[in-house]
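Recall the central idea of this unit: under ordinary conditions, the amino acid sequence of a chain determines the structure it adopts. In this exercise we apply that idea directly, starting from the sequence alone.
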Amino acid sequence: MPGTLLPYELLSDLTGMADRILAEVTTLGDGALRSSNGTGAWAYMVDHSIDATVVGLLIGRRLLPARDLPELGTGLFLQDIGKLALPPSLVHKEGPLAPDEWALMMKHPLLGLEFLRDDSVSPASKSIVRSHHERWDGSGYPGGLVKDEASMFSRIAAVADVYDAVTSERFHAHAVPVADGVDLIRGSSGTAFDPLVVDAFLGVVAAS
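Accordingly, the structure predicted from this sequence is:
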């Protein structure tokens, strides 16, 4: 499967879903902030794609011009597409991953790019697929990018991804309360996350 482009019809369906999420966020405002807290781990992959897109778009519209939001939404919705190239037994494993399993899991950003090698998805959207696990202090992967070496799109996605992940039921970890998720993001400003993005996220939370 790695190296195989997604069929155009499937990619069109996925980007269309991202557009529908953007339309919903535009209509509902900051009140659309959500997490999958309480949803079963079996549904995490689908729910996370939707909820992280919502969170990222709410952050993004505080930082980006409206014309950039469709590309942001597409990248957010596709950010974990590379996990389709990993064994389901790894993606859905209950409990902590072993070091060699984490090493394989950390390949999913680059595997995701292999699905999107043509121009059906913009470079800005692809930057999220590649770099949503990069960190402000350079401690992330796959490239160890520091600060604005990662795109603003990716830095927004990093916050949205982590917030929704920790407040959701996953196979290897239980959901934390929303307040704890917010505290985690706040406490990681300037280390894991871009302070500008964290401030925008906290503005969304305060308005919700």
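The radius of gyration is 16 Å.
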